[in-house]
Amino acid sequence: MSSSFFIKSKETSKPHKKAKAGAASKRKAPGDSSEKSKVRAQKATSKYNEEISSDSEGESPIMSKKKKPHEEIEYDETPQEKKLRLAKLYLDQLKEEEENKAEEDSFETDLIAGRLQEEVLEQKGQLQRLIAKDLVPPEPSDIRVFRGHKLPVTCLVISPDDKSIFSAAKDCSIIKCWQKLHTVPGGRKGTESAIWSHSPILCMDISSDGKYLATGDMNKLIMIWEAATCKHLYKFTGHKGPVSGLSFRRGSHDLYSASHDRSVKVWNVDENAYVETLFGHQDSITGIDSLSRERCVTAGGRDRTVRVWKIAEESQLVFHGHEGSIDCIELINEEHIITGADDGSVCLWSVNKKKPLSTAKQAHGCHGDSGLEQPHWVASVAALQNSDTVASGAFGCSHNSQVNVWKCGPGYRGLQLLFSVPVSGFVNSLKFSASGQFLVAGVGQEHRLGRWWRTKEAKNGIYVIPLRRKPNPEQENVTE
């Protein structure tokens, strides 16, 4: 059966109308679209040439309307008009793609510009990431303790990738722990032929690329180790007193050492060579630190001075402020320093000011009978570099041994206590991880430089304190 039918009876009755319509269509120009539409409209509405599809039988107007959006749009246009329309669509598509690309390039440019700005501020020593506002006190159950040393821990460092912790103690041993465990045992006194240390280790540092580990001991020696395997490489001699501080210059293998002989020495580890000696302190040097610049800072102990050594310029700056022996020092950035002293104070310094910018007196409280109170000595300090977060560790009475975490005020002109973490024993060393995810404390029953007190109930070990943050911390702000 045919899918369509024609009403022929009326067609045959008036054949002249159909002929006229055909003649009219022949007279029109073939490119006239308006006439085409008229002809098509006439064909659609003609009573005498009506064609009905079998597919449309029984369909309501509503059903036909629903199908229209799914059908392809038919354009009644000439080939030239079609080319013009497609060209416009193509140009619009290209314009949209270029706009999206420009937005992405602008975003990447902003990221690069921000990174470069941070690097410039960091080199100038003016970078300060505001993260202290997001820190919250850790839960006691979150603190991990690593034990292994038989005698008090004296110093520690964290590898640049935060995967390993190196610690040393009065038992002359070095322990590498975290994911792996490696122990370098201490030698016995009189076994000078042994490569390991046979005297208490007082200080250590690791290069910024994690290649070299350096240790200094009571026997005036500096040992250089391969950090990955703890293999001994060579040793430096030259100091006339115990080596009390070591620091690698960031981005290089230049090593600065400080000693009780009141001198600072410069070494080149790659060349296994001595470079020069710097003099100026009037008493035993108790600490040293450095960053990227060719300079270092030192704490002069009982001469109560902080000194900035400009290696290239062959000059030094001298700062005064503490009332007691300055026992620990660390750089926050290239322009600001934190120190701790046995008068119980913690100070913030600028290399452009001779006096401290801020001082927290009796930072860890006092002990003793009424009227005879003595402040707890500040034995160690640490700084989360290029941030507003620092920490200090004290010792004294066992019931008040603790690690304090501080927030630095704008321009480092203030110290605000964030929280304290109770730790039983003498906090001889403190270090922040490079990522800022945790703080490590080296704890012992005695002070690292002597035996003025002994806390028998304390445990010699390493305390890993997580730095917890608020659930939805604000985005880190960067200020000059």
TrEMBL record:
CDD domains for this protein: WD40 (cd00200)
Keyword rRNA processing part of the UniProt annotation? yes
Cytoplasm as a keyword? no
GO CC entries = small-subunit processome
Segments forming a coiled coil: 84-133
Output compositional bias ranges, type Basic residues.
15-28
Enumerate composition-biased segments (Basic and acidic residues).
Answer: 29-38
Question: GO molecular-function annotation terms?
Answer: U3 snoRNA binding
User: In residue terms, where are the WD repeats?
Assistant: 236-277, 278-319, 319-359
UniProt KW keywords: Acetylation, Coiled coil, Isopeptide bond, Methylation, Nucleus, Phosphoprotein, Repeat, Ribonucleoprotein, RNA-binding, rRNA processing, Ubl conjugation, WD repeat
**Which processes are annotated in GO (biological process)?**
rRNA processing
Location of this chain's protein in the cell: Nucleus, Nucleolus
Q: Which InterPro entries match?
A: Rrp9-like (IPR039241), WD40/YVTN_repeat-like_dom_sf (IPR015943), WD40_PAC1 (IPR020472), WD40_repeat_CS (IPR019775), WD40_repeat_dom_sf (IPR036322), WD40_rpt (IPR001680)
User: Residue ranges of region Disordered?
Assistant: 1-79
Q: Which family does it belong to?
A: Belongs to the WD repeat RRP9 family.
Provide the function of this protein.
Component of a nucleolar small nuclear ribonucleoprotein particle (snoRNP) thought to participate in the processing and modification of pre-ribosomal RNA (pre-rRNA). Part of the small subunit (SSU) processome, first precursor of the small eukaryotic ribosomal subunit. During the assembly of the SSU processome in the nucleolus, many ribosome biogenesis factors, an RNA chaperone and ribosomal proteins associate with the nascent pre-rRNA and work in concert to generate RNA folding, modifications, rearrangements and cleavage as well as targeted degradation of pre-ribosomal RNA by the RNA exosome.
**PANTHER family in UniProt:** U3 SMALL NUCLEOLAR RNA INTERACTING PROTEIN 2 (PTHR19865), U3 SMALL NUCLEOLAR RNA-INTERACTING PROTEIN 2 (PTHR19865:SF0)
- Provide the assembly information: Interacts specifically with the U3 small nucleolar RNA (U3 snoRNA). Binds a sub-fragment of the U3 snoRNA surrounding the B/C motif (3UBC). This association with the U3BC RNA is dependent on the binding of a protein called 15.5K to the box B/C motif. The association of the protein with the U3BC RNA was found to be also dependent on a conserved RNA structure that flanks the box B/C motif. Part of the small subunit (SSU) processome, composed of more than 70 proteins and the RNA chaperone small nucleolar RNA (snoRNA) U3.
Q: What is this protein called?
A: U3 small nucleolar RNA-interacting protein 2
Organism of origin is Gouania willdenowi
Q: What is the lineage of its organism?
A: Eukaryota, Metazoa, Chordata, Craniata, Vertebrata
